[in-house]
TrEMBL record:
Organism expressing this protein natively: Hibiscus sabdariffa
Identification of the protein by name: Cystatin domain-containing protein
NCBIfam families: Atha_cystat_rel (TIGR01638)
Region Disordered: start-end pairs: 1-20, 156-184
PANTHER family in the cross-refs: CYSTATIN/MONELLIN SUPERFAMILY PROTEIN (PTHR31260), CYSTATIN_MONELLIN SUPERFAMILY PROTEIN (PTHR31260:SF69)
Length: 184
C-alpha cells in the first residue's frame, strides 16, 4: 500500500474516531502513535483508553518474569554478537496485549570482561500457552538502546538481534522456552 493511501486511511480513522467510545482523544491517539513510531514501543506514555492492543507502561517489580525475560534476551544477544553482557538493573517496561503479552523492556547491562555498561532494550513475546499447557516465550528483539530517532537507527551501527536465518535471506526471531520460577 502506498504511503499516500495509508495516510488517507489514517485520516479517515481519525475523522471517524469517537473519543467517547474509546476513552482517548484524537490528539492523544496521534501523540501515542508518534511515540510508538519514534521509540518502537519502548518509550510510550500512559494513555487512558479502551482500545485493544495499546502499549502501556508497567511497574517492573510487579511482573516476576521480567528479569528472566531480560536475561534470556541478553543471552540471545551475546550468542549472536560474541559478547558477554549481564543484566544489572531493570529500568522500565511497557506491555501490549497480542495473543499473550508483548513486553518492551529497557535495562542496564554490564560487559563482564571490561565493566562497560550499556542500556539495552528487548521486545519479548510471552505467548498464549501451547496446546499442552506449556509456556512459550519468543525473543523478538534485543539491542543496545539507540540515542537517535528510529529512522536514523536503521542505518546506524547499533547491533540488533532479530536473527536466525530462514529461507529467502530474512531474519526470524528465536523462540526459547519460558524459564521456570522457583517457589511458584
Amino acid at each position: 500500500m502506498s504511503e499516500s493511501k495509508r495516510g488517507e486511511e489514517n485520516r479517515k480513522v481519525y475523522e471517524d474516531h469517537d473519543s467517547d467510545d474509546e476513552g482517548i482523544s484524537r490528539v492523544d491517539l496521534m501523540k501515542y502513535e508518534a511515540e510508538v513510531e519514534a521509540s518502537g514501543g519502548y518509550d510510550v506514555g500512559e494513555y487512558v483508553s479502551n482500545l485493544c492492543g495499546m502499549i502501556h507502561p508497567i511497574t517492573v517489580n510487579r511482573w516476576e518474569d521480567l528479569p528472566s525475560y531480560a536475561e534470556m534476551a541478553v543471552d540471545h544477544y551475546n550468542e549472536h554478537n560474541h559478547t558477554n553482557f549481564k543484566v544489572v538493573e531493570l529500568l522500565k517496561a511497557n506491555i501490549g496485549v497480542v495473543s499473550g503479552f508483548m513486553f518492551y523492556i529497557t535495562f542496564k547491562v554490564e560487559e563482564s570482561n571490561t565493566g562497560k555498561t550499556e542500556t539495552f532494550q528487548a521486545r519479548v513475546w510471552s505467548k498464549i500457552r501451547g496446546p499442552n499447557g506449556e509456556d512459550r516465550v519468543e525473543i523478538i528483539q534485543c539491542r543496545i538502546k539507540a540515542s537517535c530517532p528510529v529512522e536514523k537507527q536503521q542505518i546506524s551501527a547499533s547491533p540488533t538481534v532479530e536473527l536466525e536465518a530462514k529461507s529467502g535471506g530474512e531474519a526470524a526471531p528465536k523462540t526459547v522456552p519460558k524459564p521456570t520460577t522457583s517457589g511458584a
